[in-house]
Known about the structure:
The protein is an alpha+beta fold. The protein contains 24 helices and 16 strands.
Amino acid sequence: MSLVGCWTRATGLAHVVSRTLSASLREAGSRDGTLFLIGHSFVPDSQLAQACEAISRSNDVGATDGWPGCHSSLLITRSGAVLLADPVGQFPLFVAEKADAVWFGTDSSDLARLAGGPLDEISVAAILACPESGEPVRGRSMYRGIHRVPAGHVLSIGRAGLRERPYSVLRPEPEMTMAESAERLRAALSTAVRARTLSPYRWTFDLSGGLDSTSLTVLAAGELGELDSFTSVNPAAPVTDDIEFAGRHARSVTGIRHHLVPAGPRHLPYQVLRPTGDWPHGSSLATGALRTRLARAVEFGSQAHLTGEGGDVVLKAPAAYLADLARHGELTRLWSDCVAWARLRGRTPLALVSRAVTLSRTTRRRALDSLAEDVAAGRPVGAESWEADRIAYWRRPSAQWLTPAARRSLAAHIRETADHLAEDDDLDAGDVVTQELVRQQTLTLRTVRAVGAEFGVEVHAPFMDTEVVRACLALPARRRADPRTPKPLLRAALSGLVPPAVLARTTKGDYTRGVYLGVRRAAPVLRRMLTESVAADHGILEPGPVREVLEGAIQGMPTPWGALHQVFAVEAWLREREEGVRP
Length: 583
């Protein structure tokens, strides 16, 4: 799926330069313009045509709101273009303003090839040093001069220039209750699954055994009657409890045909170092199991595959919500929850309370200033306590992996970003972190969809549909949280729709063993990548500190996996896009 357009200043006309149509790119036309829907949508063509008429004639940018699925919109008229970025951020839109024209499209790499745009070293440094903080890369791409339209914003291009404004930004609703959010989630999730089962595609399903994929599969079985579901099994690194739960749930629901899909050592993480999409992300290093399931799904005639991706993000609350309890004076619950978390993590309740109170007094702007200080100092990251690592806006940066020049540039950029934030930001810490986790999840989904495209299969994640995410995030993070009950919002929403046994699971599969085995098996290749680092050639990466962490991982030592994944994802991405720099 790809679309590139251009508006020329001299003529004042807009036109499509190139496009690759797929099931994720739909088109409708009227006398006044052409509307492209980018993403997952299930409305009939007639409704799409009506939306095109409404947006092109009266600038009714809300004409596609509330539709099942998740999609961005792009309207092209003779005199300009209107870009509407989906509120979740799943299907990004980019724009590049040049002296003679404005380029826009769905893939920043395409824009860089057509409109020009060198590598953005700030973006590379940011996702190497602090991949869990989206603030330093907000509105940026991997190329200088090519900007991303923020999620939930509309950008108009025309004679009056470029005008951007928010139109559907996801934010919590302070008065929302668990019961109200659960009711909205129940309706939104049921609609999301039903819309897909009514579509003409042949569907298959992930069934990991967890709450999310199992709930979706059970809902779909109620609509379809019969379906095929798949669970990966790797004898080298088995996750026995997931396999047992998946089989048990499949047997308990009529119509679910359950298939165990064998995987081997070559399907472990780090065995396929192939970038996906126009933004490097660590999820691209762990696609082996997904590839085995999709290959098997194709054998069953699958055209579209449904996964539970995103459920962990929108249904749970990050530990930063403890700071929100302190901020809102809910001290009795703060103590109770800190006691519960302390038992789970082997910490003392007082340490957690102290950390929560400290964070409650720290605005996002001040946290960014601290992040800039850590980046500039470049101190090696030692073992962090659970509370310092989790009751925070983001983890400590891996700034020691950057060159001094890259650290200075990134720190200056972060300080500048902080200067543009309001000191009295009213968004709670738990909600800020949740939005960042949603951003990270959209990057994972871009990887998953890219792998699906290799097999000719559309991959869908209903938990990341706009109305599903809106229903979940409307409930403030501190009200979604319960250290004693996993995903209470999902349990409240689906009670009576799925068997109680599905919602009763309190454990979660651990796949860490597979990552250690994978990095050990790929060690010679990974060592060579650091020896011939392209990021180092750009003056961004210091391979030495990364090599120390890699060797520790190979030996089975505790490892900051997210940060390490990101280094090799960036290296693979740079190598693919800089032919001639490294073979």
